[in-house]
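Recap from last week: sequence in, structure out.
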Amino acid sequence: MSNELTVNKGEIIFQEGDRAEGFYIVAAGKIKVFKMSFEGKEQILHIYGPGHTFGEVPVFQGKSFPASAMALELSTILFLPRQAFVQQIGKSPALAMNMLADLSRRLREFTVQIENLSLKEVPARLAAYILTLAQEGAGHSQMVPLQKKSQKARLPSASVSLPVSKVQLASLIGTTPETISRVLKKMGQAGFIKAKGKKILIPDQERLEELSHTGRL
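Predicted structure tokens:
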């Protein structure tokens, strides 16, 4: 039912406004989904690695893609045609439920992203992103809301590796590469993290989680 495609770094997979004839699964590599303003400013919406799907939301409506997708590195993706997939969903309630669960997760992620971009300062956004990387590495796809300290066990230290460049990270959280560098330095000086290149050690996840809410360095 799927077709395997190889896309080079910088190659456009689909553009905003293209008709959604199917959706994609990342088999290897890294894909960014983004929007571009009339002034040429890019806002990255998502960065997907192996095992993640993208472009599936407009497929169910039979409409066009609301954003564009590009390979950040040499990547292998699987293309699933809309008609064949919709027919398969009609035959498999379990598959339909899995898709609904995935779309619900995406909606929650968008809600968090909108909150971060519109209501939080850069230190809070960056802390939230780093924590999300740590939780994904521990098998969680979503940030866990703060509980009262008396109700939760102390979280262990964690180590993450930034999967994107500072330019891409800046676009993802809505700031500039220079601001990313300054905030990372301040977070290190304040003891929230220990950064060396793309490697980041989180000595105290609870403290970093507090920063993701308050934004106070």
